[in-house]
Design goal:
Elements lengths: L13 E2 L9 E8 L3 E2 L6 E10 L1 E2 L5 E7 L5 E9 L2 E5 L6 E5 L4 E6 H4 L2 H9 L3 E10 L2 E4 L4 E4 L6 E9 L2 E3 L3 E10 L11 E7 L5 E9 L5 E9 L7 E9 L14 E9 L16 E4 L2 E4 L3 H6 L21 H6 L6 E2 L7
Parallel strand pairs: 3-13, 15-21, 19-24
Antiparallel strand pairs: 1-7, 2-4, 4-10, 5-9, 6-7, 6-11, 8-9, 11-12, 11-13, 14-16, 14-23, 16-19, 17-18, 17-20, 20-21, 22-23
């Protein structure tokens, strides 16, 4: 990926056009020591280099370093190092001849101390690493590293219900509703760590959570599709309710956006003695309908209603236990993730 495509207009670039090595002391053998830098977890870049040649009356100078993606035409300055040069008498008339040390010099830099805030954010949020060479410049001479460093690629995921629906949207108490939901990350894939879960709740007309059906793990690294069958609790009075899906309700994953984890849709519970066609919910942002199906969707308002998607402490409320799923069994048979809520209650 080219430098100018990281974030146009934010990254500070400096002309680094290659020039013929006319100076008598020049850098070379530039070698990036740590070629993988999963910024921001690791921040220190280490570069080995040598200085060659000699000069008369060299009063010392610095070696400047930059990250580049286009062979040195442009780049991001990452600091400088003092060249190890010593001078002594030599030649006719006692002229001062200066030569660099023959040993390897090492430049170490903490990227946090040299990168702009914009650049640090770009690298920290990147889902794949950016690849750079290092350019070392001394006087009017310069040299590119023969190898590259990959920086970044550790961006956080953003889990959400990307699509979903349930049917029917009108049921009698005790009947079943089938929920279909696709959970994915809107940002980076989650390559490791604990998998988040998809939890299902029932809320009343005031959008207060009144029942927890259970939860099922989401497949890493990119997400999974789920079909979940839940019963409308026997004894529910007729009226408006909401099915609420919460991703990562226990916050086991640090996400780029924690405010889009809730999806929900309206459902109508009718008296079992009442028949007829399905009733479409009212036209509102949180539920669009087509016939007997309600589509799950997300709004900021919904997410604020369930900032902590835990069931409230309600005296006498019965809470369904979530089904325990063995992690090994989950990944060996991911297509069997479908969860059926059973009428099992806490004692």
């Amino acid at each position: 990926m080219k430098l100018e495509k990281i974030v146009v207009g934010l990254l500070t670039t400096t002309a680094l056009c290659c020039q013929t090595a006319l100076a008598s002391i020049y850098p070379g053998n530039v070698d990036i020591v740590n070629t993988d830098l999963p910024y921001p977890n690791q921040k220190v870049l280490e570069v080995d280099y040598h200085m060659f040649g000699s000069e008369i009356f060299n009063n010392g100078n610095t070696v400047n370093f930059a990250l580049t993606q286009d062979g040195g035409k442009s780049g991001i300055n990452i600091g400088r190092d003092f060249a190890d040069i010593s001078c002594g008498s030599g030649g006719l008339g006692g002229t001062m001849r200066c030569v660099p040390s023959s040993s390897t010099q090492t430049y170490r830099v903490n990227l946090d101390s040299v990168l702009s805030e914009q650049n640090k954010k770009v690298l920290a949020d990147s889902c794949v690493p950016y690849e750079f060479k290092v350019k070392a410049s001394y006087s009017i001479s310069s040299a590119l590293s023969f190898n590259t460093v990959k920086i970044g690629g550790e961006g956080a995921p953003d889990w959400l219900v990307s699509s979903g629906s349930f049917s029917p949207n009108q049921v009698a108490a005790g009947d079943q509703v089938v929920i279909n939901a696709v959970v994915s990350s809107a940002n980076c894939a989650q390559k490791s760590g604990t998998a988040p879960t998809l939890a299902v709740f029932l809320a009343n007309a005031d959008k207060q959570l009144i029942y927890f059906y259970g939860e099922t793990p989401i497949r890493l690294p990119n997400g999974s599709s789920h079909t979940i069958t839940v019963p409308m609790l026997s004894g529910l009075t007729a009226g408006t309710y909401y099915l609420v899906l919460a991703v990562d309700r226990t916050n086991v994953v640090a996400e780029t956006n924690e405010n889009n984890n809730i999806a929900m849709g309206k459902i109508t519970v009718i008296d079992s003695a009442v028949g007829g066609q399905s009733i479409a919910p009212e036209n509102e942002q949180s539920a669009n309908t087509s016939g007997s199906m309600t589509y799950l969707s997300r709004t900021d308002e919904d997410n604020q209603n369930f900032v902590d998607p835990q069931l409230p402490v309600t005296p006498g409320m019965q809470v369904l236990k979530s089904r325990e799923i063995n992690q090994d069994d989950l990944f060996n048979a991911i297509n069997q993730l479908d969860a059926v809520a059973l009428p099992e209650h806490q004692e």
